[in-house]
Here is the input.
Amino acid sequence: MKKVNTDLLIVQIYVDDIIFGSTNETLCNEFLCSMKKEFEMFMMGELNLFLGLKVKQMKHGTFLSQTKYCIELIKKFSMEKCKEASTLMATSTYLNLDEKGKLVDESRYRGMIGSLLYLTTSRPDIMLIICLCARYQSNPKEYHLTAVKRIIKLRAQPM
Here is the structure.
C-alpha cells in the first residue's frame, strides 16, 4: 500500500500475478512504469478473475464472487445430486468429539475443510462453522462429515 495525501495505491502479488489499483490514475501509471523498467510484463486490462475470485467492478463498489469455485467444489466432492441445505447447521446440532462415532476418511475431510476455508474469502459468514468443523480434522467421525457436507450443500450462494 502506498498513500499519497488522500490517494491510495494498493498492490497484490501472488507468485507471478500482480493486481493493483488506485484512487488516482497517476499513481497506477507511475507504478506500472516502474514495474516495466524492472520486469517484463504486460497489462491484461481490467480485473475480472483472480485466483478463483470473480471480480465485478461497478460505480458503487467492487464485488467478489466464488460461484464458479463453489460449482467446482460440489463436483470435486461428488455432491451434485445432494439436496440443498437452507441453513449452515441444523439448530439442534452441537459439535463434539463423538468418540463412539464411525471414523471417516481423514484426508477427504481435511480436503473439504481446506476447500471451504478458501471459500471464506468471499463468504466470511461461514468462517465460524468451518473453524468449528476444522477442530475435528484428527479422527473425524461421520457426524463431523455430515456437518461439513451441509455447508457444501448450502451451495455457498453469493451474498
Q: What stands out?
A: Strands lie at 2-4, 7-14, 17-22, 49-50, 53-58, 61-65.
